[in-house]
Amino acid sequence: MPFTQFVLKMHARCDLACDHCYVYEHADTSWRGRPRAVSDDVLKRTAERIAEHASAHRLRTVHVVLHGGEPLLAGPALLRRAAEELRRALPDGCALDLRIHTNGVLLDQEFCELFDELDIKVGLSIDGDRASNDRHRRYADGRSSHAKVLAAVERLRRPEFRHLYAGLLCTVDVENDPVAVYDALVELDPPRIDFLLPHATWDEPPKRPAGMGGTPYADWLRTVYERWTAAGRPVPVRMFDSVHRTLRGQSSLTESLGLDPADLVVIETDGSFEQADSLKTAYDGAPATGFDVFAHSLDEVAAHPGMLERQSGLAGLSAECRSCPVVRSCGGGLYAHRYRTGDGFANPSVFCGDLLRFITTVRDRTAAPVVVPAQPDRAEPVPAGGLTEAQLDELARGYGSAETVHALAAAQLGLTRRLLAAVGSGADSESWELLTSLDQHAPQTLDAVLGHPYVRAWAVRCLQGGPGADLGTLRELAAAAAIRARREFALTVPVRDGAVLLPTVGRVLVGGAGEVRLTGDAGGFTVGEIRIGADSREGGPWQPVRRAALAGAWTVALEDTDPQRDSHQWPAEDRLPEAELLRWAGALQEAWELIRRDLPEYAQGLRAGLSTITPLRPGPDGRDVSAAARQAFGAVGVARPRTAPILALLLVHEFQHVKLGAVLDFHDLYDQSDDRRYYAPWRPDPRPLEALLQGTYAHLAVTEFWGTRVRAYDGLGGEAAETARLQLATWRSHTAEAVETLAGSGALTPLGQRFTDGMRAATAPWLEVPVGARAEAQARAAAAERLARWVAAAPVGP
Fold this sequence. Notes:
This protein is an alpha/beta fold. Among the domains are: 5-366, Aldolase class I (TIM Barrel, Alpha-Beta Barrel), CATH 3.20.20; 668-793, no CATH class. The protein has 26 helices and 21 strands. The chain has a 9-stranded mixed beta sheet with strand order 6-5-4-3-2-1-7-8-9, covered by helices on one side. A 5-stranded mixed beta sheet has the order 17-18-19-21-20, covered by helices on one side.
């Protein structure tokens, strides 16, 4: 995973003597042997390393914080050189978000004018009112720093500098009055407040004063949270907003919460690469990597075991953490706070009890129904006939923006509604009346259920009279939507294989068969004698739909409860055990980060349209298998592969089928009466035209996947690089050949010809990427052999 955040140490000393400082007052002593200020050589090489990394990973933005010690001690000239070196080195198309974090006591007019000129945002540390701030933030001789920090804030609040004011950072001390601290910070009109728990470990635990109970930090934060909420949340608070986001399955805004992988590296004044500064609180030398800007690339740093450990998400947490009901919000707490001599970081946070109590308090006060987050709001209606010409051209090149894929989803939802009406109106008056009422009073909630991919699959089965054509599903859909809407209702629902299914919500294990009465209200629902409350967590008879919350605000369901999920050509897995669920979550996080980094044009549509992943059973001999069902927009089936890159490849490949299927529902790309069979270079059997079109379109993504990997291996040898070159040579040849077969078929409509032209244009750049004579020769030989076998077995062609 590439780094996008860099902390550049400008000065290794400080003009204050804060007794809670992790740099000078905790376990690490490496600051004693480092230069006071960063040198020009270190600045220049640091800028080059960051630029090299940004170019290799095609980063659109890098975030750099000038830090210390106290960075203002470096002086205006050195700060200017840092900004100029960074901007000079970065490649075109990569923006620089440059900030400085300071205690503020030296922030005068000259510095503000410099930061205005160089566009450097300023964050300040202050612990609240004077009494609270002076508890820790004093000069070495005991003098208060509070007045000078207030003067610095006032400078930043002036109209000419207000745009530089990035926010305030406050370290929590439970002996300070939480209301006084919060009110003092809000009075300074900050654009953001960041509360930090004091750095501590199991070896050096945080203070817990007598008489404050077992979770004083939770109680302190809860008091502030209540005051903040009562005031209408007048300013963003990073910790509180992160809890809200992670409880909704979104990404965190801070390293100290959530499961998002860390993507930060520190550059010290001597050019050493270090892990997060907070590790200085664990033991002497804890942040060290042994790497520096002169001898090592950032990719080498990213492969350091400590970096990888901090990017391992749920799989990297202790067993106690993984079983915790708030782990996806807490994330195990800050990595440094887990340390204990003897077993390292394989522990819960030393603030575990506080985090659990605070997060559950927030959860209970903001809890949604017992359901997972709804699908995105309804998109704007698509134009008559489906998509605009511009959107079709965009899709033809293999891509699809979030807006375009939302348009596809809206059209698919409309189609599902029409199918539902064809199946259900008049078939079951009780459930139909409930659905109709929900459509009037809670349409978005109903859409969230009807947008479930397997609803359409079920409706088609009903209309075709195929397996799974059971009208009892109509009652399940109505019940699920009513539960999500917290509607009072009562329905009799079917019991299937000993369970009551509620699509998008989960299933309740009741045993037996037949039917059971289900009632719902604002506080939850009851199945027979089993009560599932609005705050019920998984356990006993209750098996909710489980979701993976991935970086970049994408949450995807791992569907292992709905019987209709068996819509793919490969059998679906049963309910995933906890250990396998954790492996899925970790693999998906890695795969998603790879897609966002290497295939950003595919990532937008994937996040917008792929709501459901159905785990499949492994293929024969452990072969990787995946599938997309033509009647299940928004879902793909995948057997978890051995590596995250292959999972990324399978996801983008199958979602291509999902997108094209949605296009074909509303747009004629070829003559439906054409019954000929065509040669598909990747298949041994002749294929109908739609199958060839589908395969070609899916392989646009496959070609780009391997193309990006070949570019990453440019100039390098080794098995992985040679494999990527052979794969690119193979798939670009297959795709280009299939495009020409489609174009020459004579069966395409004018729109289909235009769509094929778009696929040709998308393939062309990859045909120019050098892969070497060996890979080209191997690909050509394999293609010739495959064609010869096909001609021998199926000599009839188009």
